[in-house]
Amino acid sequence: MTAIWVWTIDVVAVPGNGGDAGTSRMPDLTGYEVSARDGNIGKVEEVVYGDDGRAYVVVDTGFWIFEKKRMIPIGVIDTVDHENRRINIRLAKNEVKKAPDYDAKTRDDADVRRAHEEHYESFGSE
User: Fold this and answer.
1) Domain holding 37: CATH number?
2) CA angle 32, 37, 59 (to 5 degrees)
3) Which residues fall within 8 angstroms of residue 36, CB to CB, at 6 or more apart?
4) 72 vs 107: CA distance, rounded Å
5) Counting C-beta atoms within 10 Å of the first and last residue's C-beta, which end of the chain has fewer, N or C?
């Protein structure tokens, strides 16, 4: 598995139950705007954390690429701006547009994962 599927940002502390000092969890990015290097590409529809350690965001691109969705590996996220509810990725719009189409029914198939990995591998985490 390449680094593009691995979540590397800090977790967010949340209050625990009872007398717990607190626990940590991944931030909820659902609804955040997504910005490529050269402009907005859509909104996060879902964040998926696989049992195999892979994580990605499903981005609804709206009318921009004919209402298609894209599966974008977590490792290409540059920054997360919680105040403005925006994530910035290190890809250009055209690189996202050329990615394989996303289909929720087949997203866990090995061949589908391999196609996404081959597309995104050169954009791995820095």
Assistant:
1) 2.30.30.240
2) 35
3) 89, 91, 92, 93, 95, 96
4) 12
5) C
Look up the domain containing 93 and give its range: 21-123
Residue 11 lies in a domain: no
Going by the DSSP 8-state scheme, the letter that residue 88 receives in this structure is E
Q: Looking at the whole model, is its pTM more than 0.70?
A: yes
Q: Is 68 part of any domain?
A: yes
pLDDT per residue as tens digits for the range 13-69: 444 444 444 444 567 899 999 999 999 999 999 998 877 777 889 999 987 667 789
One-letter amino acid identity for 99?
A
Single-letter amino acid, residue 33: E
Total count of domains within the chain = 1
Q: What are phi and psi of 66, to 5 degrees?
A: 60, 40
DSSP E strands: which ranges in 5-117? 12-14, 23-25, 33-36, 39-49, 55-60, 69-73, 77-81, 86-89
Residue 116 has which token pair?
């996404």
